[in-house]
Specification:
Layout: E1 2-6, H1 15-18, E2 24-34, H2 40-49, E3 55-61, E4 66-72, H3 78-87, E5 92-96
Antiparallel strand pairs: 1-2, 2-4, 2-5, 3-4
């Protein structure tokens, strides 16, 4: 899922600094499914992954056995984020779509409406 959000209020920055910073960032979310319950060591390793510049948020759903990672795509890519999660020791099964696929829409009949 992509979204853009302002990082800073440029009007409050000195003009010399305002040109150095990106005004927007591209936020991407990846949803991973994992096996088992994360150990304490894996949980701490993932907590340390938050210190990586560009990782914005990590959210566990223990009932669904999923981990949602939100990151800045101007700083990181999906392969790097996946590698960070794997290095924690968490046993990943697959990457899942964040949004469900759209349901197919039936085309209207060619005969048109009946009168």
């Amino acid at each position: 899922m992509l979204s853009q959000s302002p990082l800073t209020n440029v009007s409050m920055m000195p003009k010399s600094l305002a040109s150095c910073y990106h005004l927007t960032m591209t936020t991407v979310e990846i949803l991973f499914r994992y096996t088992g319950q994360p150990s304490e060591a894996e949980t701490f390793a993932l907590a340390n992954a938050r210190e990586v510049y560009g990782i914005r948020r990590l959210s566990f759903d223990r009932n669904a056995s999923t981990l949602l990672v939100e990151y800045d795509a101007t700083r990181l890519n999906a392969a790097t984020v996946t590698q960070l999660v794997r290095r924690s020791g968490l046993q990943l099964i697959e990457e899942q779509p964040v949004l469900p696929p759209p349901t197919p829409v039936e085309p209207p009949s060619a005969a048109g409406p009946k009168v």
